[in-house]
DNA sequence: AAACCGGGGGT
DNA sequence: ACCCCAGGTTT
């Protein structure tokens, strides 16, 4: 039997139930899921775990049930709803993409890999995933799970990312003509639940008898990766000003760069040493505790300073009335600073 | 090709 | 502390 058939048989009984997925029930054979749901979930799943995505997927589809609804949303609403999920360029591209689908494609996502690739936020992985899962096309989907499964199945020792083309070619050979979407999801489920990064459960794997790494005893050591550089530490100051009427002084960060497009507390750029740059003159109080946060490529230590101020015009940022501010709209590092300040307000 | 871009959970 | 994750964009 073909390897793909063995895996599809396993998927029919072991597929995880996910909100955007049509279960492989006998009564629903051939049913395809909503392309809007697949696109939204796949963008959210970029470098993000299923557990984290489920809550956000539900919130987005409840608030914006169709791509038309999302396309009509305001930028700040979408950025706020995305807060906490990370990689905020995804949220900006999500909204751009929704508006392009409505304006240029009549509200229908393109069906082909190339058509999907032309949209913002959709790269090789997501284009193949949408074409296969939402439209049933035989496209080869390669994500981190599938790289790991292929490296083990064929005992490939070439380190990533150099090994990527080789692993993609191997994955393409296995991709079936029929049920390519189920097949892609099956390999990803296999990687997520059985062929895990550490301690793979080879005894439960439908591909165990074919797996070369299992025979050679190398499965747990694959895939190989290029060595990583260690993260430097940066320092900064967050200024949290509260006006007498309860308004908070916040700034919208520029679209490009770190935390692009998100709300945050004013302060100088983070660097090797903290730089004082208060947004206005006030009696700033330094909090006894600091915020520690780790980004993709550096650690951050953030000192938090607070002040209560009168109605002044700040040098940077603008006051947001209390009824228009929700801490849920903040990215996590800014939320951590807020939580420290909130504790101080309660203590006083 | 390499750098940039979050956050959380597991180990 | 280090690993990983249903990657894409920019330089």
TrEMBL record:
Binds 1 [4Fe-4S] cluster. GO terms for biological process: base-excision repair; mismatch repair. It holds the Pfam family HhH-GPD. It catalyses: Hydrolyzes free adenine bases from 7,8-dihydro-8-oxoguanine:adenine mismatched double-stranded DNA, leaving an apurinic site. Its cofactor is [4Fe-4S] cluster. SMART domains: ENDO3c (SM00478). This is Adenine DNA glycosylase. The lineage of its organism: Bacteria, Pseudomonadati, Pseudomonadota, Alphaproteobacteria, Rhodobacterales.
């Amino acid at each position: 039997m073909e390897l793909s058939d063995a895996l599809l048989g396993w998927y029919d009984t072991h597929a995880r139930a996910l909100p955007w997925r049509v279960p492989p029930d006998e009564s629903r054979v051939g049913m395809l899921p909503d392309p809007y749901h697949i696109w939204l979930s796949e963008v959210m799943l970029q470098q993000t775990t299923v557990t984290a995505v489920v809550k956000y997927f539900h919130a987005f589809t409840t608030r914006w049930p169709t791509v038309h609804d999302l396309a009509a949303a305001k930028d700040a609403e979408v950025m706020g709803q995305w807060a906490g999920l990370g990689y905020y360029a995804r949220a900006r591209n999500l909204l751009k993409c929704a508006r392009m689908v409505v304006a240029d494609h009549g509200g229908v996502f393109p069906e082909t890999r190339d058509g999907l690739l032309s949209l913002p936020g959709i790269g090789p992985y997501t284009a193949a995933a949408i074409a296969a899962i939402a439209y049933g096309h035989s496209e080869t989907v390669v994500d981190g799970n599938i790289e790991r499964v292929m490296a083990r199945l064929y005992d490939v020792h070439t380190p990533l990312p150099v090994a990527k083309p080789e692993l993609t070619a191997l994955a393409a050979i296995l991709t079936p003509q029929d049920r390519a979407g189920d097949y892609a999801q099956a390999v990803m489920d296999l990687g997520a639940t059985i062929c895990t990064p550490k301690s793979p459960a080879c005894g439960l794997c439908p591909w165990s008898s074919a797996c070369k790494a299992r025979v050679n005893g190398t499965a747990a050591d694959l895939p190989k990766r290029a060595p990583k550089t260690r993260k430097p530490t940066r320092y900064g100051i967050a200024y949290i000003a509260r006006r007498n009427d309860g308004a908070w002084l916040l700034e919208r960060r520029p679209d490009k760069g770190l935390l692009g497009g998100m709300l945050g507390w004013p302060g100088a750029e983070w660097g090797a040493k903290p730089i004082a740059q208060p947004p206005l003159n006030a009696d700033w109080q330094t909090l006894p505790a600091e915020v520690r946060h780790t980004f993709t490529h550096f650690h951050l230590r953030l000192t938090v300073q607070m002040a209560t101020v009168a109605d002044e015009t700040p040098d940077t940022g603008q006051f947001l009335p209390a009824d228009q501010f929700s801490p849920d709209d903040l990215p996590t590092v800014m939320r951590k600073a807020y939580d420290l300040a909130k504790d101080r307000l309660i203590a006083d």
